Amino acid sequence: MDRILNQLIQLQELNFVLSEQRTLVPKSRLTDLENSVKELITNLPQEIAILYRGLQERHHHQAAVVPEAHGTCSGCGISLPTSLAAEIRTGKGIQQCPNCRRILYHLEGAPRQLRKRLEQTGRPRAGVARFSSKELMLPLIEREDRDDAISELIQLMATKGFVENPESLLSSALRRESIISTSLEHGLAFPHVRGVEGGGLTFSLGLKKQGLKFGSPKGRLTRIIFFIVIPSAASVFYLQLLSGLIETFREDSARKKILACKTSEEMWTALTTLTQKTIP
Ligand SMILES: [Zn+2]
Q: CA-to-CA distance for 36 and 173, rounded, in angstroms?
C-alpha cells in the first residue's frame, strides 16, 4: 500500500485511541500517544496533513480515512465509480470519495462482517440486543493468555457466522493492544478492531473467573472481556456503547452477577437486565 496512505491509517488509529482514552480515563496521561500523533503529522507531506485535518473537522473527528468495501465508500455508503474503485485497489496515491471526500483505501484480506444476523429476526431491537446476542456470550474463556483469550472471542464470532477472516481480525486486535492496552479498572477489557465493514457494531463477551493478565495497571487481573468489531461509520455508537458498559460494570454487584453466570443464556439475561438503563 501507498506509504502515505499507510501513515494516514496509523495516524487515524492513534487519534481514535486518544479520543477513546480521553472518554474512558479522563485524567490519564497520554503524552506518548500525543507525541506519536505529532510525529506522524509532521512526517506527512504538508498538503496531505491539511487535507486530513480538514476531513477530520468536516466529519466531527469521525473516520476521515475509510475502507472501500464492495465498490462502496464505507464512510457514506455511496457506490463508487468502477474506475475509481479499481484505482483504489491498486493502492497507489490518495483517492477520495466523490460524495463525502473521505480518503479511501483497500485492504486485501481485511476482516469483514457477514450479513448481520442480528438483523434477521424481523422485529426492531432495543438496548444491548442491537449489538450482541445470546450466541456471542462465552461463560468460560479456556486459555490463560491475553492473546488466546481474544482469539477465543473472535473464533466465537466467526463460528456463529458474524465475521470472516478471524486470523486477520486477531492480528488487527493485537496491533491495537500494542498501542495502549484496552484493559481498564474493575477487571474489564475492551479489545476491538475498527473498520470491519459489512454489518453493524457487534460484540462478544467472555468471562475468565479466576482472571488473566491483560496489561491493566498495577498487574491487576482482568475477568470480563468484550471483543468489539466497529464499522467505520459506527465510531460514535462505539463510544456510547463503551460508556454504557463501563457505567454498568463499574458496580461491584453487576460484576458479581455476570461472573456468577454459568451458561450463555444466563449471561445474556444478566447482561440485558444490567444494561437496561445504561444502554437504552
Ligand atoms: Zn463517501
A: 19
